[in-house]
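Q: My labmate handed me this sequence with no annotations at all. I'd like to see what the chain might look like in three dimensions before we decide whether it's worth expressing. Could you predict it?
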Amino acid sequence: MAVVLLAVGLFVYAQVGSDLDAALDNSLRSRADDIATVAGGAGLGAADQDRLVAADESLAQVIGPGGTVLYSSEGLGRRTLLGADELARARRGPVFIDRDSVAGFDERVRLLARPTDNRVVVVGATREDRDEALSSLGTVLLTGGPIALLLAAGAGYWLASAALRPVGAMRREAAEISRLGSGRRLPVPPAGDELSRLGGTLNEMLERLESSAERERSFVASASHELRTPLALLKTELELALRAGRSVEELRAAVASAAAESDRLVQLAEDLLVLARVDNGRLPVRPERLDASELLHSTARRFEARAAEAGRELRVDPTDGLELYADRLRAEQALANLVDNALRHGDGAVELAVENAAGRVRLHVRDRGPGFDSSLDGQVFEPFTRGDRARSRGGTGLGLAIVDAIARAHGGRAGVDEGADVWIELPRSHTDLIGDG
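A: Here is what I predict for the chain of 437 residues:
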């Protein structure tokens, strides 16, 4: 602000000085024209000629062809005001000359000499008024500039403080949130400006971070619970096997039970590793063009023995040659989880089918069971989610969560229709994958 005020002050001072100089020059030209008119006529010695010259402020002189003074205003005498060089230049054209003083004038004087009818008219005026005006202006600028600087600095400080006051409030609240973690949010100023939008964005970020942290805590707690049960059973079976007096059959049953719990632990660890690889809800996939019918039949063949052992029918509905664009291993994993879920928790025949759904391929796995508990509406694909009936039949509660992660990794989705009909929707082409990915 000091630099701006200094620059403005210098500019104003210079501009006013220039305007005063221009006004003085114009006044001299006008008076020179009047003197030239009078000097060119017969009234040079008339009594009213001195009215053209203001006493104590201006002067005039007319110089003849030989350098003699034909007329001088009061106080100048008969001595010419111009030197030989100045007189020679004045005979060729108008000339402005500055003098520190002349006879009868102690102030600085500005002269104008111009030719007229073989004569040279010289007029002059003191620069006292100009210098006084500039001196007064300089005093005003030197006095008012610091005052204006203080006022501007105070106003700027007040405005900056008022503008940054919401930032201070947001910083203090952010410190409290960091210290207490109480679910509080940053105060958003009501102005609707950039700070308001920044506060809203930060509150949305805090909401997402808290939701993510809550999901992580829930996931860790559920994983710990799921790991505790098979580990406890495994330990119990091994302790029983180590007791003295156990028969061969009892030892064999204990080892078989321990092996089953080990398998459950291995499956749980693999499922947790799959979910741990999810980055922002996405799994790394390597899609390729697949035949939907071949994908369903290859999945069904993996479960034929298990279905026969359970006395369940496993069939694949005829397809119409649909193709899809997906990662084979991930697609087979998703279908395997759906079939395993149907065989474990469903009832009756298990049916694998495919349909064209709005330009995508929807793979269905249906059974004749009662379907999902009504208490699980909207939570079927959450990790470790199991209904009351499913808790007594084993499983980790991660199968459908993995199905949903695989679907989203392909830009698709997973869902449940009425009854026990679970499906996964995958793209038909590379364009669909890119468009949704």
